[in-house]
């Protein structure tokens, strides 16, 4: 049988139809297999990653067909383990499609350093606002005899005196010594000094310029 006759024969068309049907069946089965392997089209519940270490979270997310993206490290939170996940987006229990990116932020390992500004010789009201803005805490307050009331005379931490430019950990507690606003001298001392007789001044004779 010549090639032309074979290409126009009934046998050729039957074999071609069988091949096309087989190809369609294989394609359909392959797509179903991929859907099964990747959960294609199914919604996945986002797990709660809070307090998990990053590596453990990555493994858990990968198992679900999702992707973990680390955004940033946040200031240390003492209520969370160091280097653990503190924020995630989308939140836990949200339904997402497979392949969705889960964005997370991680807790720092410790409190960050804070540089102390100039606090001495300022009123405690000013200083109190400054240290709160820096994330520091007010500790013990004592008073010392000084003419200016509530002016900061000393700043210390755990007994160590601090100055402008020193570094402390955020959330540290600072102790202050303030002026009590009392006079430097007592009234008795002032009266005693006032009652002390003073020597009269003697005039020095001026010589006649003509001599």
Automatic annotation (TrEMBL):
Record key words, sorted: Membrane, Transmembrane, Transmembrane helix
Record bears the keyword Transferase: no
InterPro entries for the chain: PASTA_dom (IPR005543)
Domain PASTA span(s) in chain numbering: 41-108
Membrane as UniProt keyword: yes
Transmembrane segments: 12-31
Coiled coil: none
Region annotation Disordered: where it falls in the sequence: 187-211
Protein name: PASTA domain-containing protein
Organism per entry: Flavobacterium haoranii
